[in-house]
Amino acid sequence: MSDKFVAVTGCGLWGRNLVRNFYNLGALHTVCDLDFENLRVVKESYEDVHLTSDFDSLLTSDEIKAIVVATPSHTHFKMVKRALLAGKNVYVEKPIATRADEAEEMSRIAQENNLVLMVGHLLLYHPAVNRLKALVEEGALGEITYAQSDRLNINYFKNDRSVMWDLAPHDLSMVSYVLGKDPINVKSAVGCSSDRNNIMDIVHLDINFEGDILAHISDSWITPAKHVRLLVRGTEATAILDDTVQENKLVIYDNKSSANKHVEYPDYLEIEPLKLECQHFISCVKTGETPRTDGQNGYKVVKILEEADRMMLGQKYDELEKVQFSSSRRKAHL
To answer: What is the arithmetic mean of pLDDT over 123-139?
Structure first.
């Protein structure tokens, strides 16, 4: 296998980060996008990378062994399925799909054809998240009783079906990973639209996890001041991971000290999570190893989010399947 065997399709704002990392890792072969302006931006920075607007050309290329899909979430199922059926390994941005049956089908196809299918649950590769997971496993917090993940930001495009599908895959996959527990079901799910339409830009979820642990997730597209925080409470101590600060992202508080005097700042390596994620994908393709965030991991997340969507929308849920995104919206996200 040649060192350069990865193609990235979708090189918008986030896709360019994937392009940068796979290029720096020496694995990038081709970049694909329907928007020629996006391709022009890539060409200016990476002169030796092949460029195309034809997704089919990636599927027929003998040199391309893996395809990275960084397009809008509603396109994932069709594109990933085609890539897998063409014999390509696939890394797909979160969520893996917007329906559980689609996620399950993609996972099955990958398994039956011995292909790598990896979903971009980025935070499972975050050094601070992994340090917190180790502390939980060591029992440093005691028995875990509650978790809360808040991901509040501003988004002017709003081109996913709701803020939940955009942000909650991060929260849900991260909480499950840190706890080492699977989500069981949705206890409550509420949301609203500040634009007064069916695209919810504020969502609150309560999810039951194995071990009688409740997790609360809050996501917002309308918060100008970015707020990204994970709280994990145990019987002995509480951990807070604040990903918006530069130093001391991870802090441990002693539950028995009312003045919060006993505080620890656990050490961890400062490495870009996306670099670690891309390295992991390359390694899995070369060795055949199952990714940390494989198709089944993606399916479990989508299954819970689909349940939450149905709970929030009720009879309106079926109407969402009919929503057609304009070409301008698609281009904004590519």
So the answer is: 97
